[in-house]
Each structure stands twice: as C-alpha cells, then as structure tokens.
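Question thread 4412

I'm putting together a teaching handout and wanted feedback from people who do this every day. The idea is simple: show students a protein as raw sequence, then show them the structure tokens that encode its fold, then repeat with a second protein so they can compare. Below is the first pair exactly as I plan to print it.
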Amino acid sequence: MKQVQMHAYGAPEVLQLADVDRPDVQPETILIEVKAAGVNFSDILRRRNTYFMPTPLPYVLGAEAVGVVMETGPGVDAQVYPKGSLVLAILPQGGAYSEYVVAPAMFCVPLPPHLDAFAASGIFVQGCTAHLLLHQVAGSIEGKTILVHAGASGVGSLLLQMARLAGAGRLISTASTPEKRQAAQKFGADAVVDYTQTDWPNAVIAANGGQKVDLILEMVGGDVYAQSFSCLAQGGSMVVYGAASGQKGFIHSEHFVDESHHLQGFNLAHFIGTKMDLWQASLGAVIGMLAVGQIQVETSYQFALQDAMEAHRQIEARQTIGKVVLIP
C-alpha cells in the first residue's frame, strides 16, 4: 500500500510517499480502507517538531481517518463493526496518511452510512474542538456577541455554525482574504473583518454597533491575541485554543484588573485525557448534527495522498478554507 512517511523534521518536503506492506489486523483492532484522512495544524507542528507531545521518527502523520471496515480482529464485535461499514478511526499515535490503517476498536466510531466520508473527517478534531469550546469551556453563550477569529478555517467555520445553533447573539468573524471573508459569512457570521489591517479591533467594535464583544475565540496568537483584548467588553472572556501564527502573545496583567477580563485555554488532547465522558458526548452530538444537516463541513480542499506536502504548504500559507482532506 501507499503511505506518507516522515523520516526527518522540517519543511513539507520531508513528507515522502512510500510503498509498505498492508498492516495485518490484530486482536481488538479493525483493518480500515481509508477513504479520507484529515489534515490538521497539529500535523504541521509535528512535522516541525514543535508539537507539545514528542513526535518520534520515523512517523506517519494523521490523527483521524474515515474509511470502510475491511476486517475485524479477535475480540471485536462484528455486529457493531460489520464489514463494509463506515467508521471514524481516531489515531492518537498517527498513521492516517495511508491507504489502510489498523486501529484499536475502542478508538473507532461507527458512522451513519449516508455520511460523506470527506465531511466526516472533520468530526473529531474540528468538530469536537468547536463543540467543546462552546458547550463546556466558554459558559453560556445565549444572546452573547462573539468574535470568532479565522472564521473560514476548519474549527472557525464550525464555531460559527454551532454558535448560531446554540442561540448566540451577533457573530463577528475575522479573515484575511475576500474569499475567506465571503466563506465566513456563508458559515453564519453577521459581519467579517480583515484582521490584516492595523485597526481591525476598531472595525470589530464598529461591526457590533459601537460595542465591544462578550466573548472571543482565539487561535492566531501573537499580535492578534494581544490586540483582541482591546475589543473585548468589560467582564468579557477570551478562550485561546491555538497559536497558528507561531508567535507568542503577551498581555499586561493589569489589563485583567482594569477590565475584569477572563482568559481560558483549551487543548483537545488534554480535555480527552481528563474528561473522557464529556468528550464522548460531544463526539456523539457532532455526528448527530452532521447526520441531520444542521452543520456542514467544507471540504473543497482535497489532495491526493502523494500531494500531502502541497496540502501542508497551502495550510501554512493560509490559502485553505474549511477542512483539508487527503484522498488515498
């Protein structure tokens, strides 16, 4: 089978297509033919060796794969995972950039057969992140004005849709290009601001009728993180769940005293490790919303397995919208 391997850290060119033996099913595992492998920013951090968890070499990237059950090992209930059924495989140790994967059954989630495999690749990382941010971390959002940074991204696009479903008030987003701003509006933003402009916080306030926002969901870092406080209402909250710019963000502690701001952080891997029951409930909720069409996962950026390095290049250049998918 074909597989994208990484034998060194560095630029996208370290991702190399290789021919390897198809893995054999083991007890308590499932052999899956991959139809869609999700590409996430965490893959890029692993490739650079800047991820918060160690990345051993050689390594096969990809924490999520959607595919068809080919074979089940001893100890796996074949009625739960019948041959030919669609499953989401969660792969904490990587491996999704492959034509086939063997995944522990405990990390495989049966999916409704009518779900699009590409869209389903956005359930785990993007979907659960958005759902948990809104329903477990941010507190009550009903009626609140919310600023969602990078509203055309995989998580941002789902945050906008889920916030609307949860009864949020005015939704404002940021995006760097006309195409991304148009996409953020499609996903539910009432107004979209260009955060490459130096006065973007004032534009956010203007878009909110001259008022600062109640909640900010932030994943850019650097100057965007620091400037976000200037458009956050007194007593408002900001939740940080990423730093895509790779830049550190600083804010004076006096700001929290002067404005009574609240700052929280979120890491999906940490959340899963400490609150498994809440994460599992979130996963089920996201699958349900996708199955009945309440949310949509944008998957127009699709790449063949051998083009994994190009997928990484485009994500790093901020050229993509929604979920990026590899097709084995």
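The second pair follows. I'd like the answer to focus on this one:
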Amino acid sequence: MLASGSAANGATYLSGGLAPGSWAQVKGTLLSNVTRIWDASDFVGLGAGLPVSLSGVQVLVNDLPAAVYYVDSGQVDFQAPNGVFGAVSVQVIRDGAASNPITAAAVKNAPGIFPNVINGVNYPVAVFTDGVYVGNPAVSSAYRKAKPGDAMELYATLPAPKGIPGVTVTIGSITVAADFAGHTQYAGEFQINFTVPAQFASLVAGNYPITIAVNGVSSPSTIDTPQPGPIVPPIQH
C-alpha cells in the first residue's frame, strides 16, 4: 500500500518534484520483505542499463519502468524515467502484485542538494578539492569548514542532460554562477562546482543557508529531514 502524497524528491524529501533522470522516493507499507540497495549482482546482463527490479520490487511511473536503487518495507527509492511530465501515476509492484496507484507531480526541473544530516544539522553533501568533506570538524577530522575562495563540489538532483547551463549557487544572500554542472559517474547524481565567494571574508563566520537554481528554478530553502530546515555549509575566515 502506497501512502497518498508520499512520492517525493530524492534529495529534498519534499512531495512532488520528480524530475526525469533524478532520484525520487515513495513510502507506504509492505512494499518489500527485505531491506537493501542494489549491488553488483543486480547489474548482471544489463550492459549499460540500470536494474528495474530489486528482490521482486519494481516501480512504474505512468506505466514506465523506473530504475530501483533501494527497497524496504516502508520506502522505495527510484529514478524518475525520461519522458514523464505533469500529473503522473506511481505504483510499486511486489512479486507481481501491484500497489494502489498514487499521483505525483513530475516536472522538467526540480533541483535539490543532497543533505548530510549530522546531529540535527543539514550540511550539504559536498567535498573540497583536497578530498575533505564540508562540515563541522568537531564531529570528525573528515570534515572542515569552508573559507572564501575555496573550490567546492556539491552533489544534487538536477535535470537529465550531461552538461547543464544556467546553474547558480546562493549562499546566504550572495549568488555566484557555477563553474560546472553535470552528471557524475553515478546514475541520477549531479555535480556542481563553484567557488565560495570572497565577500565572506568580511562577514561573520557561521552556518549559511545554501540553495541552487537552474534557469531560475531554485532548490527549496527548507528540506524535509527529521529536523526540517535549510542546508547549511559552515563558513570561516
């Protein structure tokens, strides 16, 4: 059984916002009898394709099979297929039995930054060019705060084209153009490269909300994590 209105963007967890080529999720009950993500065995014989069934669980969007990444009893993560737009029907098929269909909004563009939630704070899934992750170093030495002039890679949901023009990044009230935006090597994951604006050298250090925009369509200022709020990279001088 699928929960009405549960189809959501795979980065922001907000209802609707399914964009072709990007990750999405749906919730309900008795959707799977196992909990797992895809593994190497699921790709056998698919060539360059992605698995559309995990342990007997499938997703159909307007009757089109979607790639399935994660399944458990209450949630299925899938990649919205190409060619869907507007009000679409989503169903989960478990061992040949179809769930109730629910309606979701599929749009051409629904950007969202993947969150890294630590101690109730929504940090962005982002990395510096030296391989250190963006976050609070008090949590782990794997993280550090950003400084003006740092080059950063953000990971997000974006439209499907390999190279995506017109992408901007806004931190606090400062907006900069992305240096690059396009596919990573992983399905449904997109990378945005940008430089932390020099203006932060004269601003107070702290956590600043960050959003991205593609041709004027912005990611949401608040995402639906267990403690809903903005995504915030910590910035120091």
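Top answer:
Good format. For the second protein you could add a caption like this: The chain has a mean pLDDT of 93. The CA atoms of residues 1 and 99 lie 5 Å apart.
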